Amino acid sequence: MQKGYIFIALILLGFASANFYEIDKEFTLSTFDSRAVSSWNLVGFQNSVTNVCGGVSVVGGPNVVATGSMTKTFNTDFDLTSINILFDLYLFDQWLSGWEGGRDQQSYFKVLVNGKQVHQLGSDYTRQLHKDASNICGQTTPDRQTHVSIQVPVTGRNFTVSLQANIAGNNPSLASWGIRGFYILTSYGANNAKTVVSELSNDSQFDVSNWTSSFKNAVSSCPNKILGGYKNAGSGAWATRKLTNLPPHSFLTISINAFFVDSIDTNDSIVFYVDGKIVHEETRQYFLSSQNICGAGWADNVNNKFVFQVPHFTSTAEFKVYVNTDQGSDDESFGFRDFSVSVDSPCPIIYEEANQQGRAFSFCGDIPNLKLVGWTKPIKGIYVPEGYAIKVYVDSQFKGKRFKVSKSNFNLTGQEYKLINRAFNIDVNETKLRRNE
Ligand SMILES: [Ca+2]
Ligand SMILES: [Ca+2]
Ligand SMILES: [Ca+2]
Q1: What CATH number corresponds to the domain at position 107?
Q2: Per DSSP, what are the bridge partners of residue 184?
Q3: Distance from the CA of 173 to the center of ligand 1, in angstroms?
Q4: What local confidence, expressed as pLDDT, does residue 274 receive?
Q5: Per-residue pLDDT, 265
Q6: How many whole angstroms from 53 Cα to the centroid of ligand 1?
Q7: Which of 3-7, 53-57, 145-149, 264-268 comes out lowest in average pLDDT?
Q8: What is the distance in A from the centroid of ligand 2 to the CA of 267?
């Protein structure tokens, strides 16, 4: 018999733990309307402000915004050193960036932090990734869904983020952009991230054996060693790195040092994937540099350190680099070095199956209503971050017998299985309990 309600509280033991602080989370519901955007300063938006595209709401989109911007200032009550900005980005319909039709179309999407540009991306609907994409919204021309994940140094306790586009022609029925799933994260407190991979940093031991690539893992010099590069990794080249036996985590942080070699144009990009999903897309045009460092005679943009943060739970992952250019590897190419991966597990994680299998859900702070996230099955495993404990109270109002879970258990059984599930409002009856269902 259930005895009252069970309340659960997450308590911090000691000070040796990090926390991931969510500064902002917006536009994550399946559907929302212009009210969701009311705290942003919008310029160049018209009509409904939001659209429904591919069954979900986006801010902006066809007939709403071409050249325009959305800007917001964020405040924290602690000092910042850096922030991570993550969101889905849609480039709808007839984007033309780069040298097309005999003139530079100059259509870009940009992210600015405190007025300084920190990211820029273009696309071209007549070729490659954009052309091959499906139609999501607006005109019947293909639309690109990509993702932005950038780490930006920020000091102080407030900062302003601006997302903007300059689109040649400025007609939102012909070319437009939109976003959804917008997050700003920062680390707070001590760092308890675990580095699981650190490689391709030492020229005398440049071990590429963990990688698979379309260019047979050829290495070039720029002047330090890079995987890929001149005459190796041109249009359509790819390289993958499988990660296995990852410890429990809810975030992957991937950093890579990128080398854009020779005549990379505005409509060329390098796309980074984790488990088949785009985590980021980046470009550096040759004319942004004045130095020819390697490859052919064009200037090169070398030593670009990128950091991507990805919500991620499973014990394996596949990272992929794809070279989205359109010319030969002796004309424009891409290479990289200094690859590292760390995992963070700042908050408890629950698992649908034993041994960290099946669906996973991470939560910080209040215990969530799992029904709202569509979770109905019993919990078979729980991860508790080091330095934390979860307190489960048998009676309501944090009263009665207490049960403390201070250790991860990836195969919950018996009383602990029952209490954890009841704490999350999941009914596991005695028969199910005995069968551990
Ligand atoms: Ca379209
Ligand atoms: Ca090109
Ligand atoms: Ca060069």
Answers
A1: 2.60.120.260
A2: 24, 85
A3: 10
A4: 97
A5: 87
A6: 9
A7: 3-7
A8: 7
